[in-house]
Amino acid sequence: DAGVIQSPRHEVTEMGQEVTLRCKPISGHDYLFWYRQTMMRGLELLIYFNNNVPIDDSGMPEDRFSAKMPNASFSTLKIQPSEPRDSAVYFCASSLGLAGFSSYEQYFGPGTRLTVT
Amino acid sequence: AQKITQTQPGMFVQEKEAVTLDCTYDTSDPSYGLFWYKQPSSGEMIFLIYQGSYDQQNATEGRYSLNFQKARKSANLVISASQLGDSAMYFCAMREGYNTDKLIFGTGTRLQVFP
């Protein structure tokens, strides 16, 4: 079975440009998560969806970041305009979810390494 | 206050020996879950083990076990019979509360296994 698929794997862009990261979750998973990993801040949750609906976006840094999930098999994270401080590895993860007494782990994609110059 | 604390930035262990990676957590919610993930140098995040706050027994998955001490709020990962392939970053994470799937990650511990 295919795992979580992310594209592109690497992205280099200039400050001010729009960046779109893409994610395809594991089929049948109801939950999708976007994380950012940096040396300074570690791994932090940006936003997560349940059944395509955003549940918690408290980690989204600012209005330059937006995320959508138009259907169960696709999500995007967009940064517009991008800034050098957005340089990081962005992970998408999916899970069967169920809050509460759930042991369902999150399956992570390979990540997108974003460099903004 | 940090929700998840991993105090060991780096650890060394000889192949075939056991190693314990420390994790303490902070929550006042009685319902929570604790996870350990491995991140090799290739970058992917790999789930290792889970412990629920109401689980009576410590979780085990193959060579991985979780030493769960609820009163001390610690959830240390024990890797038995270390292998060279265990060299990686290890992250402890917590899902806090009943109505969320949000994971909060610690800063990680880099484990290096030497022959």
Largest sheet properties of chain A: 7 strands, mixed
Question: From the structure provided, what is the oligomeric state, counting identical versus distinct chains?
Answer: heterodimer
Note the run of SSEs of chain B as H and E: EEEEEEEEEEEE
Residues in helices of chain A, as a percent range: under 10%
Could you walk me through the main structural features you see in this protein, from its secondary elements to its overall organization?
The complex is a heterodimer of chains A (117) and B (115). Chain A has 117 residues and is mainly beta. Chain A has strands at 5-7, 10-13, 19-24, 31-38, 42-50, 53-56, 65-71, 74-79, 88-95, 107-108, 112-116. Chain B has no helices and twelve strands. In chain B, the strands form three sheets. In chain B, strands 2, 5, 6, 10, 11 and 12 form a six-stranded mixed sheet that branches. A four-stranded antiparallel sheet of chain B has the order 3-9-8-7, with no helix packed on it. Chain B has a two-stranded antiparallel sheet with strand order 1-4. Chain B is globular, with a radius of gyration of 14 Å. Chains A and B meet through strand 5, strand 9 and strand 10 of A and strand 5, strand 6 and strand 11 of B.
Topology:
The complex is a heterodimer of chains A (117) and B (115).
Chain A: E1 5-7, E2 10-13, E3 19-24, E4 31-38, E5 42-50, E6 53-56, E7 65-71, E8 74-79, E9 88-95, E10 107-108, E11 112-116
Parallel strand pairs in A: 2-11
Antiparallel strand pairs in A: 1-3, 3-8, 4-5, 4-9, 5-6, 7-8, 9-10, 9-11
Chain B: E1 4-5, E2 10-14, E3 19-21, E4 24-25, E5 32-39, E6 46-52, E7 60-61, E8 64-69, E9 74-79, E10 88-96, E11 103-105, E12 109-114
Parallel strand pairs in B: 2-12
Antiparallel strand pairs in B: 1-4, 3-9, 5-6, 5-10, 7-8, 8-9, 10-11, 10-12
Descriptors:
heterodimer, A: 117 residues, mainly beta, four-stranded antiparallel beta sheet, 53% strand, B: 115 residues, six-stranded mixed beta sheet, 12 strands, 0% helix, 51% strand
